[in-house]
Fold this protein.
Amino acid sequence: MYDILFKNISVIDGTGAPACIGNVAVKDGRIVMNPAGEAAETVDGTGLTLCPGFIDVHSHGDMILGTESGRVCKTTQGITTEFGGQCGDTLFPVSPDPERQTMLGDSVATCVDTLPDLSPFTTMEGYLRWAEEQYVTCHYTLLTGHSALRIAAMGFENRKPTAEEMEHMKSMLREAMEHGSKGMSSGLIYSPGCYADEDELVELCKVVAEYGGFYATHMRNEAGSILDSVRESISVAERAGCKLDISHHKICGKDNWGKSLETLKLVHEARERGVDVTLDVYPYTASMTAINVCLPAHFFAHGPEKMRELLKDPTVRTELKAEMEVMDGRWRHCGGAAGILIAKADKTPEARGMTIAEYAEKTGKDPYDAFFDLVIENGHGASGIFFSMNEEDLQRIVLDENAVIGTDGVVPNLTAPTHPRGMASFPKAIRYFVREKKLLTMEEMIRKMTSLPAERFGIANKGIIAEGYDADLLVIKADEIRDCATYTNGLAISEGIERVLVDGVTVYQDGKLTGRSAGRFLPHIKA
């Protein structure tokens, strides 16, 4: 007897093939095609669509693993597998030194409300022991953060690692790869990742290449120097011999709009040379990160606490204002304080939901001084939504044959404002690019969310509705899928996702989580 039988349901199998009406069963967590027999539960699929669960290739869900917000933000939009450990940030490996544990905690503060005890996370094995005890509703796989490696080995120092420090980083990365890490991520716009040169990244990625893993990078620049950044990213992967994912590919700043024509050309040329390059993209024209990213990179070398003290100095403020006015950074990309919406700011909750310009006016401060005060009060824990992109570049990137959908999302809690991508990237991609813009068919878009990422990132037995595949499945009302989250209400639940199954277990139905925990760690299989 089957566990579940879906009868007369429209099946979009994830391959890009046209939808067809059929019967599909689930037994012992696996898919059975064209079943013959009875089931414990039979579902009349008339008017419904069955498709593979979505694969979020760019997630920060490892930061909030086991939390209610971590479950809600993924499962309600149909995600059944997420790739954590992005942008250089992971909770492992951490140094046994408590001071460096604090540094790592400060580094990831924008992603979390409450950190677990980091002391057991000196290795990935330690993190996984903790992770296995958490209540999760989707599968997860992990990269190892370059910034975490650097903090564990050398803190926030702005210099090359010594030979000993490099070997320490390689040793920690190798331990992670042995325990199933998919590879390494970097956040080259953030400290301390931004202090690494190409050679450092290549040496570490050579360890990744030994295991057939991949390198995911939040590039050094996504604006005026984006072409150089794409070239550097490709060069790292090509020299090291590993796969590459360019994270949340975007073009920031009005002066740079249109450069996606050139960045995509570089990607295609690299693939023609045999470099395995993929892009992930979220379907929005605003990004989100810590607001202190507006500060010059060299300023972070002082460390989080010293940096806050320096920001109180009027002379330092004057120097920073002058630098931020001209530097190729987020402040200018957004047109200044009016283009940055304050999202997470726990120490100054009155600022949330306002632009920095609006908050400055409310408090009677100069916009720069309002910004500096927010950083002093909240440290890395203040995040903002940055309006700096345009639709033409976004559409061009989404349509590229090497692009897959990701959220770049983390929802620390279910009360504070947040970017809608964390709750609604996948429904929005369907609603906007398929139904409204008609740039892709439903089958083509679902392929970008299922079988294509499974193929590119080595997720076996997932992403396709086929005999014997894992029963990570969605029951949807295809014509009614709609993202409800907005920039001012980023926590609204999407519509049209009727049921979510993970390994055949129903984890979401009738608009609520079922309370069943079916997610598991998916280790990288050494090539």
